[in-house]
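User: Please predict structures.

Assistant: First:
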Amino acid sequence: NRLEVPIAYFQKIHEDDASLQKRLLEYEELLSDMNGIPEFFNKHGSQFAYISSINQEIMFNLLKYIELVKVGRIPEAQVHYSVEIAYIPQKFFENASRSLFEKYTYTSALFYYFKKDYEASISHFEDALYLTREKSLSAKINYNISLALFQLYDYGTALIYAKRAKRQYMHLHNWAKSGDCYNLIASLYLEQHKTKEAKRYIDKGLSVLGNSVMETHGRLYHNLAFTLMEEKEFTDALKMINTCIEVKKQLKSKNLFDSEQLRLRILFHLGDLLALRESMNRLHGSIQNELEQARLDYFEAKLYHILHEYDLYEQKMKNSIRHLHANEDWKALKDAV
């Protein structure tokens, strides 16, 4: 609180501290891989307890937001932005240094993305794209714009940005990120029911990743299983989704449930009700949130319908629709209704 410090602090609000600036640059650099941040704050945390320079205090808060996002503490990050950043008029940043304005536009884009205001997110990402001179950040922004357009169902424009990001990452020889782009492009083609194009980009994605197993392998295997299901190659789809699930388990992936859910869909197509029931029973023990429960309720409702257990069907479907609506999962809700 600036009112609880000596008057001398007020006299330095427009003066950047050289030592603190060095620490801020170190902090920003550490955000690229996150490894040394706990040790960094154990050693230098006291320097951030009070920051006299307004510009440096704002930069610290912007970097803190990015850190919270990177470690998956999204609700905390959103509160942090609302309390520490949102009140500052954009005019302030327009008159600040280019680096501070760039960081603000990029951070704001993330804030609006997680707030599900995708149009505002895209607007801020476009500003950040104009301001940045860093090639890797430019690629990341193009990728993120594609994700936001995906949420707005503008798949054609999303493809333009995703392919642009892919080219940038390929030039940077960042094969892991290139693989992510190939996967996103495949997903966009799948949304347009273009399975041949999707499969082509999945194959390219797997080829750039090489043999070292990573999260992107799981995502590509998932999309390949979905593609095979769409092409009614259900036996091959089941083999592929089983491979995908094994890879995700090996990597302790956070989105394992999505692939387990796809496996249920494939089993429905195969008519293997016994395997379906076993899979559902196993999934009950690994539900992480309301949304996952809603999706499992939906599949259980479908099974009860097949078995002519209409009371149980109605109960499970009502539960599913209520939770999907509460969590604003409109796409799944549309399918359920």
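Second:
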Amino acid sequence: DGGDGGNNGDSFVGGDGGLGGAGGAVARNAVTNQGTITANGDGVAFLGGDGGAGGNKGQDGTVTPFRGSGGTRGGSTATNGSDGELGTLQGSSAEGAMGDGGGVDLNTVTNSGFIIADGTGVLFRGGAGTRMGEVIENTVLNLKGGEISGQTGIWFGEGNGNQVDNAGRITGTGGTAIAFSSGSNRATFQARSQTMGDVQGGSGDETFTLYNNAKVDGVLAGNGEDARDQLVLNFSRALPSEIAQLQALQPGDGTFEFRFEEYRYTSIEEIDISNVMVSNFGGATPPPQIENLTKTLNNLPALTPDLDLVLTEIDENVPNQNDALQQLTPEVH
């Protein structure tokens, strides 16, 4: 019989690379600004650490392929048996994966001064990695008199539970004042605040809340993939005719006016007007001698922004009815 075939070559494979370490988290920091921050880049930035690079894979071993010769067949005719197969390197090793990015959680910015940036005014961004670091439950409180300005005013990376409360002015010089990337987040626009630019919701559910004379010079965009983007109207001193107009608002895309301000919204699934309060300067049952006066006062705010401002502040800040009427007289005059 013919001889056995040659042996196959061995295979040697290097080990997989190690997983990179996770990036550092940025959590529970508080920044309070009462002065002026100016920046060529970002004004105030919370940046999660990037995940560490994965280790290199081990070097593959080497083997010299060889072919075994077949044995010589016995008998009067010399014929070689079949040759062996060439040795090969089988399988493959992998580079190590990058570590997870660091998260940005529970940080707060309180601003009553000025944050003026060429980049983003206030930035929250998780670290890069095999899994991006999440941005969770961070808050920006822009107090009365405070101003935040940047190409984008305030930007939140992928995450959930973030919020902005604006009683001052937020400006997006590139067209976007506030941007959420994902999750369920909140933006509140206090009375007489100014938001100059669009407010962009992320892929989750947003809640946008408006108070009297809050100026939003841009669109309130829900953008959510779910069905819970909400516009909440907390207007006070509304006239019956104004309430009727608000009741006619429809979800989806639309525009409306209230008390000298125009609002635009897109991709809003719910409009909540349950907190709108009717104008009632004289109380629920005004005395007969001032009944006609209180009816007049209830309608005056709709005439000019200044009257609206004066009457609202007196009505809300002077609880005693007689004191309010006495204070009102020189203001109206």
